[in-house]
Amino acid sequence: MIHRESRRQFLKSTAVGLSASVLTPYIFTAHAADADLPRSKNDRPRFAAVGMRYQGSVIARKAALYVYCEKPLTLTVDEGKQIAKVVKETKRVVQVGSWQRSDSRFRLAVELARSGRLGKIQKLSVALNLNKTGGPFPITEPPKSLNWDRWLGPAPLVPYIAERTHNTFRWWYEYAGGQVTDWGAHHIDIAQWILGHENTSPVKIETKGEFAAASDRSFNVPKSYFLRYIYHDGTVIEVIEEGRAGIMIEGDRGRIFVNRGTVSGAPIEQLAKTPFPREQFKLYARDNLTRPERAGKLDAIINHMGNFYDCLQSRELPISDIHTQHRTATTCHLANISLRLGRTLQWDPQAEKFVDDAEADSMLSRTPRKGYEFSA
Prior knowledge:
Blueprint: E1 2-3, H1 5-13, E2 25-28, E3 47-50, H2 54-62, E4 66-69, H3 77-90, E5 94-96, H4 104-115, E6 121-127, H5 148-152, H6 184-195, E7 204-210, E8 224-230, E9 236-240, E10 246-251, E11 254-258, E12 263-264, H7 266-269, H8 297-314, H9 322-341, E13 345-348, E14 353-354, H10 358-361
Parallel strand pairs: 2-3, 3-4, 4-5, 6-9
Antiparallel strand pairs: 1-2, 6-10, 7-8, 7-13, 8-9, 10-11, 11-12, 13-14
């Protein structure tokens, strides 16, 4: 089933500077695999807004659609590798919804750090949020409006629990990865961009975590966590679960704090005397400077979707492209694997596998439930 009309108007309304007549949005849901997919009879851009990520993304790209995909991009590392492969083969434009890249506050912080104005980056700290704990929850009958089998898709078949759905799905490892992949898909993405590691992953992953007692009726992501990523050049990202959510960038010439409400610090105050206009930004060559700067989720998404539409016309790489977002998702998944194994892991970013660690490698993919097998 593909829902069209209710969300099409929103998608069209964000298409700043484009004629709505070129836009044919399709919204993919868990029923997309059975859908009669539209195929363009000409080169007019058609796109799919994908919420089911891996399967929907692959189906849409193979149907010659352009894709705007929800974050985090994947549930496993191997899914990301397959999606990247399909994008390379089909040459489709794909924008991942990591919209903080289109938020003027985050963009300024990244550009300042990469320009050298903070000096050598000495420390980068990311604060996310606590995972929720809860359960055991009651088993009930699913609502008549919900196809529970289809909702689960390739995940294991389990009795219906309301808390496995809607916003609380993210606290179940079967469907998500807690805050590490939820907020981490945003803040860790920006952190890797700040360090110039947006096209790679860490080589060493150190974590500490605490899990609640195992139960198939309770949330099962860590109730506490600490992450430390070490990269090939010795740079480090530390991720904590408490404190002021955001990113602290510390250089030997100054520091900046940035989150969805502010960008602050002495280097920001110094901009009054030594401006840093957008025309001097260097990290994304296809900026549309006719679009006004926007900050905050709803406004930044307008520019993020606008960048996607620009790239539909130019066929160039969007600001949240599939390759950097696969690396971001990989970095998040690596931490969750380390947490679940309870030990430090060594990672080979080029081979995209762990170093001499078959047990950890086995967690790079998940065996789908019978009837939901899928391959790119």
